[in-house]
UniProtKB/TrEMBL annotation, chain A:
This is Urea ABC transporter permease subunit UrtB. It is a multi-pass membrane protein. Keywords: Amino-acid transport, Cell membrane, Membrane, Transmembrane, Transmembrane helix, Transport. It holds the Pfam family BPD_transp_2. It comes from Myceligenerans indicum. It is found in: Cell membrane. The chain crosses the membrane at residues 63-81, 144-161, 193-215, 227-251, 263-279. The keyword Transmembrane applies. Belongs to the binding-protein-dependent transport system permease family. LivHM subfamily. InterPro entries: ABC_transp_permease, ABC_UrtB_bac, BCAA_transport_permease.
């Protein structure tokens, strides 16, 4: 029974990682932009949930409102960042890293000034409190909700990329920018839309994180490194790889935590990733395979 | 193979009844045989091309490409200078010249991929200074030297992208339920109907090149700039491609960059020779072949001013097929020489 409990803990952790990394798999994986402010977009999504709850009051309604609003807030922040700074340095990844890190610090300070340095809490709705009992095992409803949310986000993104004309355009621009332009596609507009969606997914992840604990200005910094690791380990630009890597890292962390401590588990996971990338630098799912989702 | 207004998207696009064009005459109406060269026998693989091409004679018949004083500079190196070029509809123009002559750069400049000064106008509107996708939406289509398709997308998706370039943003999230008739036609025209759901990356080289042309057709391009469209094709494939280009060229403005002299002799209406970024000669195939300056560039006659070489010193018609591999990429040349002719 312990194993099943750890399995659930691992999947739950994996789903959180996946939510954090899914947007990055677009902006970093597809577009090659190293956006260190991605974590702060999550933080913005979390504070969006906080504000919405302050306005609406009812925890259930506010959560359901905050999810799309968090997407929009994260997306707009991303759009702003892309339009002002990132698009000037598409061929300078190192500069992008530094600039977006600076933006991340600015956003943290803005959050501190607006909402105060101490963490704040967002109440979970009543229908997510407590746990579901399955065979003597208590599965917290918030965790189940996040699992489902992650699954919905993955499916929606995969469908959008594969089945809609917009998704075809995003993939076309990623694969061959000049040909896409010569085919009449505005690569600038497509870049912006891609960045909006990727950043918006960070906003959704932020809203989900409010269900797991209190939130503060540095919320994003806790997740940004893990999120990048997931995308790199999964294979750049491969949603399938991101899903597998997030799940694997979550499970690994959970099981190692069970037999050691949280810090040791984290170290072991990092070591495992480094070793894995030595053996397979291109990540789990190679870029050259044809399917994206 | 004449077309009726009910088949093919072309007929809808031309809207002959809803909005008659001022310059349209009864003779221009869809359903009448296309103006231009007399009908030719249709090669089996290209059946349906007329349905795609044949009805659109009203809209663009007076369009032409006009390049004046075009100049492209890369960090002080002048790749193209003082190029004047006029190509009209129905005049299948070939652009030849040794490596580094500036042929591809010229196409890049016209399609907005490199910065250029001077003027390049199509259908009376200036192209220089516009972004590449706007130029594409203005009806200018091009292919790339290395067969460039979206390799990870299916054949159908490639065509969909080209067909949907002018789609409005809000329709982009709608899933398409049926294949547009123009896309179906293009699939048939380029003979890729059976491969429609394969990723374009697994197509044979020649099929990719046909897919490129198919993309230009559904893109509704009326100026086609083709960069080595038959490189690496078999003789039979070249023949089919040439026939297709002829048919396209009767109603659109087509410029073909090509090294293959035999292909040029079979299909070119006129030829422009470029050398070191300039236009060296222009005329019919025979005129160009007998031009002493051209002969010198291709055969490397000793350093005498081009004008001083009497035409008689070189046998007429001596831009031989052998000259082509000399300026093609080595790998390319090897394939070409290895192929049965």
């Amino acid at each position: 029974m312990d194993i099943i409990a750890q399995l659930f803990a691992g999947l739950s952790l994996g789903s959180v990682l996946l939510l954090a990394a899914l947007g990055l798999s677009l902006t970093f994986g597809q577009m090659g932009v190293i956006n260190m402010a991605h974590g702060e977009f999550m933080m913005a999504g979390a504070y969006t949930a906080f504000v919405v709850q302050g306005v609406v009051g009812d925890a259930g309604v506010s959560l359901l409102l905050a999810l799309p609003l968090g997407f929009v807030v994260g997306g707009l922040l991303g759009l702003l960042l892309e339009a002002t700074l990132i698009h000037r340095m598409y061929r300078r990844p190192l500069d992008t890293l530094l600039v977006t890190w600076g933006v991340a610090l600015v956003l943290q300070q803005v959050a501190r000034d607006v909402f105060g340095a101490p963490n704040v809490d967002v109440r979970a709705p009543a229908w997510l409190s407590g746990a579901v009992e399955i065979g003597g095992l208590a599965l917290p409803r918030t965790r189940l909700f996040i699992l489902a949310l992650a699954a919905v986000c993955v499916v929606a993104l995969a469908l959008a990329l594969r089945a809609t004309p917009l998704g075809r355009r995003i993939r076309a621009v990623v694969q061959n920018r000049d040909l896409a332009e010569a085919s009449g596609i505005s690569s600038r507009a497509t870049d912006r839309v891609t960045f909006f969606i990727g950043s918006g997914l960070a906003g959704i992840a932020g809203v989900a994180l409010t269900l797991l604990g209190s939130i503060g200005p540095t919320l994003g910094t806790n997740y940004i490194v893990d999120a990048f690791l997931v995308v790199v380990a999964g294979g750049i630009g491969q949603i399938k790889g991101t899903v597998i890597a997030a799940t694997a890292l979550g499970l690994m962390q959970a099981f190692l935590e069970y037999s050691t401590t949280a810090s040791v588990a984290k170290v072991l996971v990092f070591v495992a990733i480094v070793a894995f990338l030595q053996l397979r630098p291109q990540g789990l799912v190679s870029v050259r395979t044809r399917s994206l989702a | 193979m004449t077309d009726t207004p009910s088949t093919g998207q072309r007929a809808e696009l031309a809207r002959p009844h809803a909005a008659p064009e001022k310059r349209g005459t009864p003779d221009d109406r869809p359903g009448t045989p296309a103006a231009g060269p007399a009908p030719r026998a249709t090669p089996p693989g290209l059946a349906g091309a007329d349905a795609l091409l044949g009805t659109d004679t009203t809209r663009f018949r007076h369009d032409y490409l006009e390049v004046r004083g075009l100049r492209v500079e890369f960090d002080g190196f002048v790749a193209v200078r003082d190029v004047d070029l006029t190509v009209t509809q129905g005049d299948l123009r070939f652009l030849i010249g040794p490596n580094g002559a500036g042929k591809t750069t010229l196409i890049d400049a016209v399609t907005g991929l490199v910065r250029a000064t001077g003027s390049a106008a199509f259908g009376g509107s200036e192209l220089l200074g516009r972004t590449t996708h706007r130029i594409a939406r203005a009806g200018v289509g091009r292919t790339f030297q290395t067969a460039s398709v979206f390799e990870e997308l299916t054949v159908l998706q490639n065509l969909d992208i080209a067909a949907g370039a002018r789609r409005r943003p809000l329709t982009l999230l709608r899933r398409r339920t049926t294949t547009p008739p123009a896309v179906e036609q293009a699939l048939e025209t380029v003979g890729l109907t059976a491969q429609r759901d394969l990723p374009a990356g697994v197509l044979a080289h020649g099929q990719k090149q046909w897919l490129e042309i198919g993309m230009l057709l559904v893109q509704d391009a009326h100026l086609l700039l083709l960069d080595e469209p038959v490189a690496g094709m078999t003789q039979a494939e070249r023949e089919e491609t040439g026939q297709l280009l002829r048919r396209i060229g009767s109603q659109r403005v087509v410029v073909v960059v090509e090294h293959d002299m035999e292909f040029l002799r079979s299909f070119a209406d006129s030829v422009t020779v470029m050398h070191q970024g300039r236009v060296l000669a222009e005329g019919t195939v025979a005129e160009v072949q007998n031009d002493p300056a051209v002969v010198e560039v291709y055969l490397g006659t000793p350093a005498e001013p081009a004008g001083d070489v009497p035409a008689g010193t070189v046998p007429a018609g001596t831009v031989p097929a052998d000259a082509a591999p000399a300026d093609a990429a080595p790998a390319d040349a090897a394939t070409r020489e290895g192929e049965p002719r």
